[in-house]
Write a structure and sequence with these properties.
The complex is a heterodimer of chains A (596) and B (267). Chain A has 596 residues and is mainly alpha-helical. Chain A contains 17 helices and six strands. In chain A, strand 5 and strand 6 form a beta hairpin. The chains are: A mainly alpha (596), B alpha+beta (267).
């Protein structure tokens, strides 16, 4: 242990005493992490209910959904969804899930709570920025939700908000005026929160590591958050100005994204001189790194959970870290594969296709390192490890469809079809959510001081694992048959035979969604009535399990920062405490894996 | 539990592969001259992705089955060849695979997008707008008259903004709501949007191209099979997006000539 004065440059803060400073406007990274988790939890259930409504409508287009008119009397007269309301719900589903769940939970929630502890710090270097990042994100969420309550509802332009549909105003359809302004404002505000959070994560990782915690001794989860925060810093810094330009096209008469001579409703539009493709370039320069912002924290979390449950370090800690880094670097060079048939120069499509194909190499290495590490391990099966292994299965399934979408010649058939929807749901949504579940079952004891119910956790896993495949595999089949996405009904002759497949997907989505209430019950019940958690229930080695109390005290380590002596995953050895040695244990051992 | 999980993974992997192997849902029949390399590329990619998918899932399942058993006296062992072996395997196997796919795929793409249309390709113009396509044939003079955006009017049925009073080239232009083309004749399709982003997708024709407002784009293709097909929009364009479609009729030259005459008479 060494004294905290070693980090004298950090402004120490005394524990708060008032309820408001302790639980609401808290600058404690752990409270902020829990707040982010709570926000993501609310958001994911909102997003899921939206997906249920969409799926019901897609299966049975004229179905009256009881009570829907309460949500919007114009959007669902007689409880039957209108075409525009379907698109509005779809847009909100995508936006809420991508930004407020997949970015918020694995990165901001777990990262906030555990990154400072795993590096052996008492807090982040800019705690007020950290608090601000959460509150700004909450404001962004409220602004997004508020668009449900403006006169013509939220925007219908999809989470990608392609211009000029998003830029010409309400003449393009319901929600395209105020709905878009609220959407773009919300996302711009969200970007501020992410930029503040990313700055904190980067600085904490680089400057706040405790004595002995070299970069190679950082756990893989910390590497995941660190790499993600570097991506976040650049990607959100591009999306934010893009959203501001979009707002200006609405309110200031500019034409950044609108070309000349457009005619809507027989009216020549006043815009002139903008570029339709500019939005796509700006959006996807953010949008593709965003895929990795969603999944790399999950990779880190799953790697961390697996090492503990395999009782061994990864086959190569460093190769895994380098591969996650390679994903981050390449993620900026591949974004053009979203635009193969957009009308950009066809040579650009070929140029973008190669890095897109090459990104499969680091992805493959990551999967092979996971598989190779399972070999010869002592695998423990519990809810956390089941979801971690499930994540690998989902990542493989979602990853292989990337072979297709990286090729412009195949994009001719598959672009904007359900094949794409199946691909990104498996690889970035389901895989990332499995990472979140794995992290939740694993870290809940440390976060709340109580154990989750394992039996319920396993039931939750089985229903979710089988259910997710039943939902998302058929999407690929529909896509191969040319099923276009973002249709509220399938009126084309060639789409009629696919309707039974969509009904199957709908039933699977309803059942899998219902299974999530088991998780919610487990979460709430265990929070208050779960079995008391010991300090280190999984016999793990990293510093979050070395805190003096569970949950950790306000300053994480009770006034004495730990000193680190070992690589993060010293399992499968003969230590005095069992088959592992904690990072802060001065015990001399024959270390396994690469030594820093 | 671990064994059940392993079996479940394998069952899911096999069940997922069956509809692909049986082509239960698959690309529609190809009716283009350029489609064959695309279809071959699709089958080749499916084979490689399918093998990667099945092999990885089965390996995952086997390892879960095998290494979750308690083996108290056995030390942790490393995968033969270690991490470096796996990295080399990934570079060699996947690297070669993706570069080969990339090269052949680029050839198939270039074959369509980087070759000019032949000199005798038949020009047809298509205009996309919320939520309909309109097509224009140049008439006997072989020339399209200019488009005047300020004259575009659904109300006056001047869908493409033509000034037939003043523009000589526009007088014989034929504007239709459906697209007809002669079989085995190359078509040079000139694309523009009057309002927003849209797309021109005919799965059977292996043609898919977005419309970019403010930018005129062109594609070319030859249909080889007489029949009726659907042209659908794939770029979200508003509340009627799902219903934005037109029919494509591929006809014999004689039928096409008669169709065009009939349409010309209706202008």
């Amino acid at each position: 242990m060494h004294d905290m004065s070693a980090q004298a440059h950090v402004a120490h803060h005394a524990p708060p005493t008032s309820f408001i400073r302790k639980h609401i406007f808290s600058i404690d990274h752990k409270v902020i992490g829990k707040q982010y988790y709570g926000l993501a939890l609310v958001a994911v259930f909102v997003g899921m209910v939206l997906s249920w409504l969409m799926r019901l409508h897609l299966g049975w287009t004229n179905l009256a959904i009881p009570g829907l008119h309460w949500l919007s009397s114009t959007g669902a007269p007689g409880n039957v969804m209108t075409p525009e309301y379907y698109l509005q719900l779809m847009t909100m589903h995508g936006t809420i899930m991508v930004f407020f769940v997949l970015t918020t939970a694995p990165f901001a929630a777990f990262g906030n709570f555990f990154l400072p502890i795993q590096v052996g710090a008492e807090d982040m270097p800019f705690p007020r920025f950290n608090m601000m990042s959460f509150w700004v994100t909450l404001v962004a969420f409220l602004v997004m939700i508020s668009s449900f309550f403006v006169s013509d509802g939220p925007t219908l332009g999809g989470w990608t908000q392609y211009a000029p549909l998003s830029a010409v105003g309400s003449v393009a359809g319901p929600g395209q005026g105020m709905g878009v302004i609220l959407w773009a404002s919300s996302i711009a505000i969200f970007c501020i929160g992410q930029l503040l959070g990313s700055l904190n994560f980067i600085t904490t990782t680089l400057d706040m590591r405790t004595k002995g915690m070299s970069l190679w001794r950082l756990p893989l989860s910390t590497w995941g958050w660190f790499i993600t925060s570097v991506m976040g810093l650049t990607a959100f810094a591009v999306l934010m100005p893009a959203c501001i330009l979009l707002i200006l096209d609405h309110v200031a008469g500019t034409s950044f994204f609108v070309a000349s001579n457009l005619v809507l409703n027989d009216q020549l539009q006043p815009h002139a001189g903008g570029s339709t493709l500019l939005w796509q370039h700006l959006f996807w320069f953010f949008g593709h790194p965003e895929v990795y912002i969603a999944i790399v924290p999950g990779m880190g979390i799953v790697s961390h959970v697996l090492t503990v449950n395999m009782r061994r370090p990864m086959l190569s800690h460093r190769v895994l870290v380098y591969s996650m880094g390679a994903l981050a670097v390449l993620s900026y060079m591949v974004y053009g594969h979203h635009m193969f048939v957009s009308g950009m120069n066809p040579i650009s499509s070929i140029v973008f296709s190669f890095p897109t194909l090459i990104i499969t190499i680091p992805s493959t290495i990551i999967v092979l390192i996971w598989l190779g590490s399972l070999y010869g391990s002592r695998l423990r099966i519990n809810s956390a490890s089941l979801f971690a292994l499930g994540m690998i299965s989902m990542f493989i399934s979602g990853g292989v469809s990337g072979f297709f979408l990286a090729q412009p010649s195949l994009d001719i058939m598959l672009h904007a079809t359900y094949f794409v929807v199946g691909h990104f749901h498996l690889v970035m949504a389901v895989a990332a959510i499995f990472g979140i579940f794995s992290g939740t079952y694993f870290w809940f004891p440390k976060m709340f001081g109580r154990m989750m119910d394992e039996r319920l956790g396993k039931i939750h896993f089985w229903l979710t694992f089988v259910g997710a495949y039943c939902i998302f595999m058929p999407f690929h089949y529909a896509g191969l048959a040319g099923n276009v996405r973002r249709y509220q009904a399938f009126v084309d002759d060639y789409l009629q035979p696919l309707i039974p497949l969509h009904r199957f997907i709908t039933v699977a989505a309803l059942a899998t969604g219902a299974a999530q209430f088991i998780f919610l019950y487990n979460l709430i019940h265990s929070r208050y009535w779960g079995e008391k958690a010991p300090d280190n229930p999984w016999q793990a080695t990293s510093l979050e399990w070395a805190t003096p109390t569970t949950p950790p005290p306000y300053d994480n380590f009770g006034g004495k920062l730990p000193v680190v002596y070992h690589d993060p995953y010293q399992y499968g050895i003969e230590g005095s405490t069992g088959d592992y040695v904690m990072q802060n244990s001065p015990e001399k051992i024959q270390s396994v894996g690469e030594e820093a | 539990m671990a064994k059940l999980f392993a079996v479940t993974i394998i069952v899911i992997a096999i069940l997922s592969a069956i509809p692909i192997l049986q082509h239960t849902w698959w690309l529609p029949q190809d009716i283009s001259t350029h489609g064959q390399p695309i279809d071959e590329q699709m089958s080749e990619t499916m084979a490689e992705a399918g093998i990667s998918f099945l092999a990885s899932q089965i390996l995952l399942a086997i390892f879960i089955w095998k290494y979750s058993k308690p083996r108290p006296n056995e030390r942790i062992k490393n995968f033969p060849g270690g991490a470096m072996g796996l990295v080399i395997a990934a570079f060699l196997l996947v690297g070669t695979e993706v570069l080969a796919l990339g090269a052949f795929g680029a050839k198939a793409w270039a074959n369509i997008y980087l070759t000019p249309p032949s000199a005798n390709a038949m020009p047809i113009q298509v205009q996309a707008g919320q939520f309909a396509f309109y097509f224009r044939y140049p008439g006997p003079d072989g020339k399209f008259g200019p488009i005047h955006p300020d004259m575009i009017s659904e109300a006056n049925a001047n869908f493409m903004g033509l000034d037939t009073t003043h523009d000589a080239d526009s007088k014989d232009d034929i504007v239709t709501a459906e697209m007809a083309i002669p079989v085995n004749r190359e078509i040079h399709l000139l694309m523009h949007s009057k309002d927003l982003g849209h797309s021109f997708y005919v799965p059977e024709l292996r043609v898919h191209q977005d419309f970019l407002p403010g930018l005129d784009l062109a594609i070319h293709f030859t249909a080889t099979k007489i029949g009726k097909y659907e042209i659908v929009c794939t770029q979200l364009c508003g509340l009627g997006h799902y219903n934005m479609k037109a029919y494509l009729y591929v006809m014999s030259q004689e039928d096409f000539d008669n169709w065009l005459k009939k349409e010309a008479a209706m202008q």
